[in-house]
Structure to design on (401 residues):
């Protein structure tokens, strides 16, 4: 192992901001044993939890495909927040739930949202106008929260509260357990009222579709609908915020690519996919070994915790040539930024639609993209997501003289 990099650095805060040097040094030794603290790195945790970190593409891919060996049910569920439906379920519970929510969360529903997402993007950009702006505050946070609110049929004005809930849930650094539990109670009350209202009077929204999914024989129960709404809030906001932020941060340093994109919009899709590979918003999530299993010559014992490092797999040079370079000319079908297998991201089409509409809106409006005078700041609250807490850019609708 490179002498200066140890597995402990996987939970060091600077690694949350830039995990790639640590991944590069540890990947050849994967699986690596390290102290993992689900959801963050925190001195609040009294008993450290050991985990095996999978950092090589092949091992991550195989683990994601083998849900029988790598269980998503968590022995830690409930300790750091509520146990999450779907994403922390194994079959057969996962199969039933996914079938029912697939009925409600359809591609058509996402497509129907497209004109609306485009108009929100335009509104946000109109509000920003020109000059130096922190894009996180002004654009990348509000857009996905407004979209999820709209999808669920909840007034967009409540998006500040949504964002607070989503933040508090993800961060084990700043929020105490009590604060997290209080937020959870608020969320439960909020969604409970809406689900009850939709059972009486349906509307054109996802909560109504969830209430109706499965008919009378196999209907989702109230707590399942609440659990799913909470999951969408958590899984759909911060992730998309960071996809858009990471993409703009990459493009601001590549003015030639910006000009190419303006001239040729067929590059929009590869830019989004390469951003997902190169700086994916979700860096790690957790599994538990359901049986003894050998990975790259190491035995992982039944009951051991396992961390899937999506971000490390996506930079594995054995899977992607020249893996530490941002390139739009590569085959990007196999990146694992949205996971793989039965838990493959349900919101991937929505996240891609939001990123596509955003990039096109920016390209239409801004001939150039420049960094602001204030520094960009990477978030360091949680190792799960990679992204920015501040991203100042200078937006001009006319090129500088
Ligand atoms: C760029 C944005 C996003 C990224 C990078 C992302 C990433 C992921 C990943 C890696 C997983 C797999 C989890 C696992 O392996 O255990 C996942 C699952 C999931 N995502 Fe996303 N996600 C994004 C956006 C969204 C959005 C917008 C939504 C919903 C509105 C969403 C909803 C979900 C749900 C419900 C699951 C659980 C699926 C299951 O367990 O069957 N995600 N996501």
């Amino acid at each position: 192992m490179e002498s200066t990099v140890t597995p402990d650095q996987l939970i060091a805060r600077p690694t949350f901001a830039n995990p790639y040097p640590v991944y590069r040094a540890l990947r050849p030794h994967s699986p690596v044993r390290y102290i993992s603290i689900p959801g963050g790195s925190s001195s609040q945790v009294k008993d450290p939890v050991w985990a095996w970190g999978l950092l090589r593409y092949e091992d991550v891919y195989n683990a994601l495909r083998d849900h029988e060996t790598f269980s998503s049910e968590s022995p830690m569920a409930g300790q750091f927040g509520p146990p999450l439906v779907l994403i922390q379920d194994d079959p057969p519970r996962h199969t039933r739930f996914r079938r029912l929510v697939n009925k409600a969360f359809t591609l058509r529903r996402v497509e129907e949202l497209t004109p609306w997402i485009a108009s929100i993007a335009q509104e946000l950009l109109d509000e920003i106008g020109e000059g130096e702006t922190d894009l996180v505050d002004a654009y990348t946070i509000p857009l996905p929260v407004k979209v999820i609110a709209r999808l669920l049929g909840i007034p967009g004005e409540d998006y500040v509260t949504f964002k607070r809930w989503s933040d508090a849930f993800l961060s084990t650094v700043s929020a105490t357990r009590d604060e997290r539990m209080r937020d959870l109670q608020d969320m439960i009350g909020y969604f409970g009222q809406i689900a009850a209202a939709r059972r009486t009077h349906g509307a054109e929204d996802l909560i109504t579709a969830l209430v109706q999914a499965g008919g009378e024989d196999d209907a989702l129960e109230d707590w399942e609908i609440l659990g799913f709404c909470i999951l969408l809030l958590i899984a759909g906001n911060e992730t998309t915020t960071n996809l858009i932020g990471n993409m703009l941060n990459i493009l601001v340093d590549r003015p030639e690519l910006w000009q190419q994109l303006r001239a040729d919009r067929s590059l929009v899709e590869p830019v989004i996919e390469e951003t997902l590979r190169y700086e994916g918003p979700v860096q790690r999530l957790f599994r538990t070994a359901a049986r003894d299993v050998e990975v790259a010559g190491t035995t992982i014992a039944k009951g051991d915790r396992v961390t899937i490092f999506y971000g490390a797999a996506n930079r594995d040079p054995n899977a992607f040539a020249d893996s530490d370079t941002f390139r739009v000319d590569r085959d990007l079908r196999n990146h694992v930024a949205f996971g793989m297998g039965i838990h493959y991201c349900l919101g991937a089409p929505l996240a891609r639609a939001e990123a596509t509409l955003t990039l096109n809106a920016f390209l239409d409006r801004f001939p150039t993209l420049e960094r602001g005078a204030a520094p960009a700041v990477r978030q360091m609250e949680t190792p799960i997501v990679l992204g920015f807490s501040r991203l100042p850019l200078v937006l001009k609708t006319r090129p500088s003289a």
Remarks:
- The longest strand covers residues 49-54.
